[in-house]
Amino acid sequence: MSQSKVMVVALDGATPELLEVWAQAGYLPTLKRLMDQGVYGSLRSTFPPLTGPAWSSFMTGKSAGHHGVMEFFRPQAGSYQQVLNSRLDIDGKSLWRILSDADHSVGVVGVPLTYPPEPVNGCLITGLLTPPDARDYAYPPDLLQELEAQLGPYRLRHDEKYHKSNPHPFLQEQGEILEYNLKTALYLMEHKPWDFFIIHFYGSDRIQHEFWHLLDPDHPQHDPEERARLGNVVLDFYQRLDGALASLEAALDEDTVLIVMSDHGFGPIHQFFNVNSWLLKQGYLKLKPHVVTRARRLLFELGVNYSVAARWLLKFGLGRRAASVGRARREMLQRRMFLSLDDVDWSRSRAYSLGNLGQLYVNLRGREAQGVVEPGAEYEALLEELSQGLRALVDPDTGRPIVTQIFRREDVYAGPYAAASPDLAFLTHDMVYKPMGLSDFPSPRTFEPVYGSTGHHRMDGILICRGEGIFREGASIEGARIQDLAPTILHLLGVPIPQEMDGVVLSDLFTEALGAQEPVIAAPVDPALDEGKPGYTDDEEAKLMDMLRRLGYVT
Questions:
Q1: Integer Rg of the chain from CA
Q2: Tell me: the pLDDT tens digits for 54-80?
Q3: CB of 465 within 8 A of CB of 38?
Q4: 456 forms bridges with which residues in the sheet?
Q5: Domain boundaries, given as residue ranges, for the chain
Q6: CA 502, CA 16: separation in Å to the nearest integer?
């Protein structure tokens, strides 16, 4: 199989639950037509369904256990802290690098976790997790100057945060970035040669994080007055995306395959689950016997804690000012004032949480810096004990179990990086209770109402594929995973698929004749990149941490 061109439009966080209803109601005519003319269904994200592992799986065709990125962060050797991942931490050649090596021209705009930019046969502009002050985020290096001469200053940063008292700066910024990204894509598509092109729109993710409560009358933070005043801002943004998609489609040749996808879905969150606070109460985490730690613990229990401070900063619109203090100074103040993992006595602690969606680690002897749990029977017994404790958690208002699925490492991860994955992970009921493992001890309460965001990621995104004579018109997609897209695209373009990919070609989507064509498997390749430089400096990582806090991924 060898199509002439493939175009991917990535709508970050686009979720079937919204898209299907609004498309059928006639609000999204472009998406509705593509769904009818092509194949449509859900696209399974990674576990957890987060930006870092999901886009790493898309670009490499690998699962997280094979490419090594399981979160925004990775454990720092010899400590209980984490450091930020960059493109150089992803084990595997990217889809666009493989295509470039096969003499195909590519265009890549805004895909997360692509900084620092890698040389390609074409053009590449990095996306989320590009350092805020960077100017080296385009390839070739003179591409940024060319774009800014044509379109004005490049709109890379998402600076505004939703404030209920004045949401319009946030909404305006999202609309402006969408329009700039669209103009960038159309310019490059017209003026640069390409066989493969991908444009990533991030605003759908941001809008849903901040405004999900307006969609859902049953959300604890739903405000009918705010909904009446603002209208359905999520639908409004989807309609702008639908219009952008129409503009992109109009610029395509008739024989270009068009793929519309998202890296995960979306849904409401009602409460935070402060996992380390629960572990502290259950005795899995022990605190140092020092006087200062005891004082912090007392203040923590009395309500002088990070969660209260964060709520006040958000209430008075001071989040940006707090970020301007700088990560190093702010974290120093935070750890001096509030209870943190610095106060943990690791010589007596057996388990801890680090991660956005319910990842638990055993303080294992021989692996952790101060591990105390013996491998083998003691380790297994602790995992069972933790699992039983999680299963026993019940919502006092509804009586329903809070944790509905629990996974051991081997249930989720396989491959050379599985050993670095969490020992235990879990999902909560309908994922409305969001585990918080990146905030040390935000509050003495195990559960508390959400603040900062009212929506978060779900396991299933969307996938639409349209190509006349290529895909089965009107067929439904079942069982597709995000790591399957890279080998499928390579197959469409007639490029051999690396043995290292554990994604598979979605041959069931093709017409009968094309679906019978066996993909060509390539010889093993060396996945190493040749840039030979670290992903981020200490200053860049600090600024990116501040950005992630503003975006709500780190509290």
A1: 23
A2: 999 999 999 999 999 998 888 777 788
A3: yes
A4: 267
A5: 5-265+457-551, 271-453
A6: 25
Token pair recorded at residue 81: 């802290």
What 3-state DSSP class applies to 481? Answer: strand
537 token code pair: 């400096």
Q: Domain 5-265+457-551: which CATH class?
A: alpha beta
Does the predicted TM-score (pTM) go above 0.85? yes
Cβ contact 198:107 at 8 Å: yes
Q: How long is the chain?
A: 555
**DSSP SS3 for 87:** helix
Amino acid, single-letter form, for residue 299: L
Q: Which tens digit of pLDDT belongs to each residue from 202-236?
A: 999 999 999 999 999 999 999 999 999 999 999 99
Q: Which residues of 283-318 are buried (b: 16+ CB within 10 A; e: fewer)?
A: ebbbbbeeeebeebbeebeeeebbbebbeebbeeee
Q: Return the residue matching tokens 């696209």.
A: 43
* Residue 525 pLDDT greater than 70, yes or no: no
CA 226 – CA 210 distance, rounded (Å): 13
Residue 136 token pair: 């080296």
Q: What region, left, alpha or beta, does residue 181 occupy, with left being phi > 0 and alpha being psi -120 to 50 degrees?
A: alpha
Q: 60: helix, coil or strand? A: helix
